[in-house]
Amino acid sequence: MTRTVARKPVARKPAPARKAAPAKAAAKPVKKHKKEKNGNGKVKVVRDSFTMPQADYELIAMIKEKALNAGLHVKKSELLRAGLQALSKLTAAQLKRTISGLEKIKTGRPMKD
């Protein structure tokens, strides 16, 4: 005759509390323009993405080619950073004139074809 032994209930591990997903911001937060250094002396970098017209993207390639012809190999991010440095030296009126001359574009990811 076989005997059935009652099993003891196994205690479950408590499920880790899930944090609510943060709501997407309507506009990207303004980045700090001062250089932040972490503990080992390296500059903290931030990865970001943005939308730009094809003509501006081609302009980056033309400027990279110009720099290469001058003997300077530059990355796209270096060109954008140099542009930011140049913009930061403009007066408020010059900056307003420069930005108002840009074509307004719809932000966000382009539709898949």
Structural account:
This protein has 3 helices and no strands. With 113 residues, the protein is mainly alpha-helical. It has a domain at 54-100. The longest helix is centred in the middle third of the chain and has 16 residues, at 54-69. The chain is elongated, with a radius of gyration of 26 Å.
Taking the alpha carbons of the first and last residues, their distance comes to 71 Å
The arrangement of helices and strands along the chain is HHH
| Amount of beta strand | under 5%
Classify the oligomer.
Answer: single chain
Average pLDDT, rounded to a whole number, is: 79
The general outline is: elongated
Cα radius of gyration in angstroms = 26 Å
How many strands, what sense, and barrel or not for the largest sheet? none
Helical stretch tally: 3
Number of strands: 0
The percentage helix is 25-40%
Low-confidence stretches: 21-30
Structural class: mainly alpha
List the helices and strands and how they pair.
Layout: H1 54-69, H2 76-88, H3 92-100
Write a brief caption for the model.
This protein has three helices and no strands.
Main attributes of the structure:
3 helices; mainly alpha; 113 residues; elongated
